[in-house]
Design goal:
Number of strands: 14
Structural class: alpha/beta
CATH superfamily of the largest domain: Type I PLP-dependent aspartate aminotransferase-like (Major domain)
CATH architecture of the largest domain: 3-Layer(aba) Sandwich
CATH topology of the largest domain: Aspartate Aminotransferase, domain 2
Number of helices: 16
Helix content: 25-40%
Largest sheet: 8 strands, mixed
Radius of gyration: 28 Å
Shape: globular
Strand order of the largest sheet: 3-10-9-8-7-4-5-6
Length: 503
Amino acid sequence: MDFQLPLDQTCGKPIYRQISEGIRAAIANGRLRPLEKLPSTRDLGSTLNCSRFTVMRSYEELVSAGYITIATGSGAFVSAQSAFPIVSQLDTSIDSTPNTIAIADANLSHYGKSLLAAAATEPATAELFAELNYGAAVDELLPTTRWKELVNKATRTTQAGQLGYESDPLGYFPLRQALAGFLGRSRAIRCTADRIAIFSGSSGALDCLLRILVDAGDLCAVEEPGFPGARRCLLTHGARLFNAGIDQGGISIEQLRKINEPIKLIYVTPSYQDPTGAVMPLERRHELLQLAKEKNCYIIEDDFGCEYRYGEKPEPAIQSMDEDDRVIYLSSFWKTLFPLVRVGYMILPERLVDATYKCKSIVERDYPLIEQKALTDLIADGHLERHIKRTRPIYAKRRAALVQVLTKEFGDRVAIESAAAGMQMLVRFDDSFNHQSIISAALKFDVSLVGTEAYYSNTGASLSGTPKRAKNEFLLGFAHITEEQITQAVQALGRELLKPSAV
């Protein structure tokens, strides 16, 4: 184990004392943690270019002071005591809270200041809910065995140069070809591989896009309530937001028409409006395209949750209906393959391909060849489509079980949004229930329930005049637990909440 300490041979202070003081400081500022093993006296002496006996003397001094302990045959360890002061390496004189520094004193760029300002109102983890399995795929339903086979196949490549350095900012070209075919079949999307850009996730794709599109002060429209990650990213790039209300058909075209100044883009989740689950009907998709043409702005179509639809014919992607080349299609494999695969992608209008290529060549020039080769085979050989086809009825049964038990337990005292897609659903309890009591009962009985507060704008009055919050509104996850578990958990929730003292 290497452990570096600054030593000054000319300061007059004994080396053993400098070592012991350096280790004390490392313990105090958290560089060395309680019970962490220290290097042997021989190894530390070699690292610091001093004798082993000098280090031994330092250790003896630290043992006597209670900072470290020596275990015969095992070595030296930081003491388990927690009485030593833990001091931040940052200057905390500006604020009493450790690690807090005023934005002005950090000498940040405009982007850096916007980043911190956006994080203050839109927390970076606002949409990451462990209770809902982070909205990701279910571990036991993942095609793990098949994925291992394909990764092994990719690593067995023996042709010269195939495992060498690869650099294409838009991603592995065969994967982009496979994606174009898959999206053409599943979403009626019209594109070629040269218009697809692959990223390590959809958030990185969105950030890259906004770098080339949005200037500080540009007006952008988002859904209210809507995905907090997109709102945060837009705010970080200095955008002004128009929070357009939504109804059972998604974003309000009427409210968007009221915008009487230039608008740069409209961000929508038409396949599964996040968080309500509303699916945008075909007529409104045409209206949105016409509106974007009239206002000369782009549409970002985040095709969130499109893979899992229940009982309704899927609507074609807005991008597939775009005759004016102004729709940017954004998606990922989060709901189908994460954590096996961490990949997001965009389908770009022709006029944005070159700028995206140049931007991505700076922020993410290379790509993981093995992963992208394996994903290419997973898609091209039909394994992904078979996986979705296999898991969709499983999630549908779990969704139906949740609807059934909620209706049976709560009757008309709970409103269930008729979400026809996704892996969670929106429910609203009536005003007779106490909001905090619902949350406490859900925690007590392990019900996958979280409030929707994070999905509402937290940046001042909504320009569209839509309500800022919905009382007793929650998301309930169903995809990551069995029908039996869903039924038992909600029944227990009902017994708790319907007691006279709870309502």
